[in-house]
Specification:
The complex is a heterodimer of chains A (179) and B (408). Chain A is mostly helical. Chain A is built from eight helices and no strands. Helix content of chain A is 64%, strand content 0%. In chain B, the strands form seven sheets. A four-stranded antiparallel β-sheet of chain B has the order 1-2-3-4. Classes of the chains: A mainly alpha (179), B mainly beta (408).
Chain lengths: 179, 408
């Protein structure tokens, strides 16, 4: 058993440095600020339980990679819980005009809808897209984080990007968002 | 790699930066909260591993007097003497609205106790954790976690009046999530939402208004869960503005259970952490508009904004236009929605229906505008000093610099 005050100090320092980045990833994975905070807190609380066993790991990047893996897997796992599956909304927004072949991300309005569109992807596709394009992980690192093969990551990423592009072009829908 | 994939990393980075509250992250409090949660899980696991007499012994030990089982935490040496010191031991803290010492604490060991206002009182039955607290003149209002270790875990709304015992205001049965959303300006009414953990349809969502003086709770059926990027209490009820998620618009939730929704055209929020601009008194909201934009726009492609007055849900013509990348944080709406103050450099004041007037000089603002009263607004300048504008008719008629202005 380590010295509690030293453990607290080390863990606090880690949270201070890693929390903002993990929170951003969690936000993209969940699409909702409150859920993102819950997700990061859950993952870091589990990390804290293993903190003493991880005492030999003092490479901050390795610890963040560990936390990011837990984040991705936890977000996929949460998705299976029924109460995360719906985001009821009041209005049916009008579909946006398809931007005649232009890149939807360069359209200011559509870029604003990215989080919403991302939340409509199946959880594994979403995790693959976020880890590859936001966290800038390689295919191999993404596969390790998601616990699947590189080929599966390629498939999820490719399908996720295609679906995201379709959603961004078609505009928002009102169901199926992450909670 | 196509254009879409090329732009995706930067678009995701920008989207992540829009996470509300990112600029106010309190990682120290987060770390404390996480360690408390981790220790609670550890204790629970240990308890789950013991059986028979051992379990009985543990249960007995947990019913020992205060401090018998708690790990003593060191007291901060620099606690101001005017502030009540936090109690020693293992406590979970509520989340204060702003950074600072925790307002309310709940002991992490049985028998659960609540510490607030410098004293410790027993927690109501089943209460073992906190999930949010707001301060009011009538005491602290908090959402507590009830039956945390049972499958029936739910939330309750508690009031902690100064010098009195904890009062349970609302304790719904059956796995309900409560969220404190806003307080009325006099601090008497608290608005909360109630969502079932097993919610599968919009009909499961409710919102309520609790009167902190009488303890009356009005629970209303709300057909939707409206996403919100900013909330403030106005004369008509809770004003909730969503600029990022559909339905994009302004919803006014009235205390009587009715609501009004006005859609607004979604635009790219120029600020990375863009928040909606809402009058502090909840009477008006800044909205994009194209009506009359040509008269105000100085360059093609600028976004134009007007004021949505919530009493009549009417939108003014365009009052101010700016490049799409420019932040809207330096815009401020005055009391009653009568003034729209453009704090960009040079300071410019656009008013009601009459156009804009310039404050002389080129200055940079160090802060957002604050309205002193209906006709006075003040802000700090980057180069030092403050500026006070007195509004009459259609312009900032009188400008007072408290320090010598940083320009001639």
């Amino acid at each position: 058993m380590g010295d509690p005050s030293r453990v607290d100090a080390e863990f606090t320092a880690f949270v201070r440095s890693a929390y903002p980045r993990l929170l951003r990833t969690a936000y993209l994975l969940t699409g909702e600020p409150g859920m993102a905070e819950d997700l990061v807190q859950t993952v870091l609380a589990r990390l804290f339980l293993r903190w003493e066993r991880l005492a030999g790991v003092r490479d901050r990047d390795a610890l963040i990679a560990y936390a990011r893996t837990a984040l991705a897997r936890q977000s996929i796992s949460w998705w299976r819980r029924a109460w995360h599956r719906e985001r009821p909304t009041a209005e049916l927004p009008e579909p946006r005009d398809a931007t005649s072949g232009a890149d939807p991300l360069t359209t200011l309005e559509n870029r604003d809808l990215l989080v919403h569109a991302l939340a409509q992807l199946p959880p594994r596709q979403r995790a693959a897209v976020v880890l590859r394009y936001f966290d800038d992980l390689t295919e191999a690192a993404t596969a390790a984080a998601m616990g699947c093969s590189v080929g599966t990551v390629r498939a999820h990423t490719s399908r996720g990007i295609a679906r995201l592009r379709d959603l961004m072009t078609a505009g928002p829908t009102t169901t199926g968002g992450a909670r | 790699m196509n254009d879409f994939e090329r732009h995706l990393p930067s678009a995701l980075a920008e989207a992540a930066e829009r996470l509300p509250g990112l600029d106010r992250l309190d990682t120290e409090t987060a770390a404390r909260r996480i360690m408390t949660a981790g220790r609670r899980v550890r204790r629970r696991r240990r308890l789950a591993g013991v059986t028979g007499l051992v379990a009985l012994a543990v249960a007995l030990a947990m019913s020992l007097p205060d401090g018998a089982m708690t790990r003593t935490a060191p007291q901060p040496a620099d606690t101001p003497s005017s502030e009540p010191s936090a109690p020693s031991g293992d406590w979970s803290a509520s989340l204060p609205e702003q950074q600072g010492p925790p307002l309310v604490l709940v002991s992490a060991e049985r028998p659960y106790r609540i510490w607030y206002d410098g004293r410790t009182v027993p927690a109501p039955d089943g209460v073992s954790r906190l999930s949010g607290t707001r301060t009011t003149p009538h005491g602290a209002v908090m959402v507590a976690v009830v039956d945390a270790e049972l499958p029936t875990e739910t939330n309750a709304l508690l009031l902690l009046p100064p010098g009195k015992n904890v009062r349970t205001l609302h304790a719904p049965a059956g796995q309900q999530f409560l969220t404190l959303s806003a307080l009325s300006q006099d601090g008497r009414l608290a608005y909360f939402t109630q969502l079932s953990r097993t919610a599968t349809s919009p009909g499961d969502q409710r919102y309520g208004v609790v009167d902190l003086v009488t303890g009356t709770v009005d629970l209303h059926q709300a057909p939707v869960l409206t996403p919100s990027d900013g909330q403030v209490w106005g004369p008509a009820g809770l004003v909730s503005v969503s600029i990022r998620q559909a339905p994009v618009g302004v919803t006014v939730w009235r205390p009587d259970g009715t609501r009004r929704f006005a859609p607004i055209t979604p635009v790219e929020p120029p600020a990375t952490d863009g928040q909606p601009v809402i009058a502090e008194d909840g009477t008006a909201v800044l909205v994009p508009t194209t009506d009359g934009a040509e008269a105000v726009r100085s360059e093609a492609g600028q976004l134009c904004f007007g004021v949505l007055e919530l009493a009549g849900m009417t939108t003014s013509r365009a009052l101010v236009c700016r490049p799409s990348w420019q932040r809207t944080e330096d815009l401020a709406i005055g009391p009653g929605g009568r003034w729209l103050l453009d704090g960009s450099t040079p300071i410019e004041i656009a008013t009601g229906r009459r156009g804009a007037a310039m404050v002389p000089g080129t200055v940079r603002l160090a802060d957002r505008w604050t309205w002193v009263d209906a006709t006075h607004a003040t802000t700090r300048l980057e180069a030092g000093g403050t500026v006070l504008c007195t509004f009459t008719d259609s312009r900032c008629a009188r400008v007072v610099y408290t320090d010598p202005p940083p320009f001639g």
